[in-house]
Prior knowledge:
Bound molecules: zinc ion
Distance between the termini: 66 Å
CATH architecture of one domain: 3-Layer(aba) Sandwich
Structural class: alpha/beta
Strand order of the largest sheet: 3-2-1-9-10
Radius of gyration: 30 Å
CATH topology of one domain: Rossmann fold
Number of strands: 13
Amino acid sequence: MIDHWVIRLANKVVKEKGKAIVIAAGITTSGPPHLGTVCEFLYPWALVKELRRRGVDAYFVFVGDIMDAFDSIPTSLREYGEMLEPHLGKPLVHVPDPYGCHRSYGEHFLWETAKIMEKFGVKPDEIVGSNELYSKGFYDDYLVFFAERLDLVKRILEETSLRKLPQSWKDIVLPVCEKCGKIATTRVLGFNLSEGTIEYICDKDVGYTKGCGHKGKVAIRDHMWKLAWRLDWPSRQDFLGVDVEGAGVDHHTRGGSWDTAVAIHKRLFKKEPPIGFKYGFILLRGRKMSKSKGLGDLNYILSLVPPEVLKYFLFRGGLEENKNFKDDPRFLLSLYEEFRNIGLLFEKKAKVKEPGLAKKVYAYMLASESEKASLHVSFTDVLVIYQIYGDWKVVKEKLGFPEEIDKLRTYVENWVKLNIIPKEYRIKFNPTPISKHVDVVRSFAGKLRENMKDIEIHNLVYEVAREYNVNPKELFKTLYEALLGQPYGPRLGRLIVAIGVSKVKETLLKLTEK
Ligand SMILES: [Zn+2]
Ligand SMILES: [Zn+2]
């Protein structure tokens, strides 16, 4: 059996929860989706795929936590700073959409996340904002239930969060202040459950914003409140019937919100909690990403590589390990080539025995969607040949697989436009006179034949170098100089085939004329 976390997790889920499974995921859409966001939907999606492959009825619900407070203005939205600033501390669903196309800031970024999911081929059965779950009254009974057991709830929170709460603490819920609209700054003073109201004061200073001092009451049925996160999570899991849900390691540390959720399920709801799984962070060049710093912009990364390559990157490793992504072109090229090679193995239905490799082939299967990936042409070749000819018709003639090339086209054009091609792949056919090894190059050119394959040309370089007793490395360098005007380049055989063998022959003979 393949030793992959998705398989192990699916085994556990089926064994403990049966054949109809609800998988939940959720994020606070407090800004543009970044690379770290993909964990939140790709890991559950991998599980959904594996369960469905086994004929399990898997239902995937994705929740946008947009009742959460708007706590910082992302760097990429700095130009809207003046407009957004007064809304700090309000629920994201009450903050205006800076782009004006959605009802709120929170909804804008929730739907932007949904669009990104679509790019990755991730199709939740349901995407819902937490505001809707609140306004439909799903949380009402939970609020009352917790309020009636305030002491026990407080004790569970203290034990599982490893934090002592103040004597007067009653903050199982965060009311929205009716005066200033903020949710981050309110404190509960008391409950009147027979009347169905929560009494609060808006007086907290949370660093990025301050309360207005207003003292008021909010009716439970008006839904201008949200439960504290540690209570919101298990409540939602309970009414959605969640069987399995993942979260980042930060939620799963000792004192983290997962421990609270489990305790609430067991000790208050008297039910078995969902199965949890925890995943590591995606680092970008070794650093943790954050929405506010605007690092790891997903749209940018997806303009450089197809989404399935990023999925493969995520799925090939362990679940809990941190994964270091680099938006550096050399890293992306080698990742792409690995993806392609593994994809070819998968396509051939090759029997792979070596465990590490088998795991990668399985990761490829999870990463690929029904639409076929471009496996038969190398990204590097397309990049090189496009630079030489600048004409997609010629690229297709030279490499074949026109449909695959069409799929890679925008990525290659972006690499060229953004000028991020590593120098050894940066090509311009640029015949340049040479001063060294002129006879050797001339002899090499004389031996080139129109129908030679790249590997034959490669071998010819060694042959001629031996014949003239020069270091093959030297000869390669000289040939690059002659063809490109620089001492390096992509694989010479491929390069010469790409330019055209007779054209190279003619060029080299002319350059070495006596
Ligand atoms: Zn919008
Ligand atoms: Zn207020």
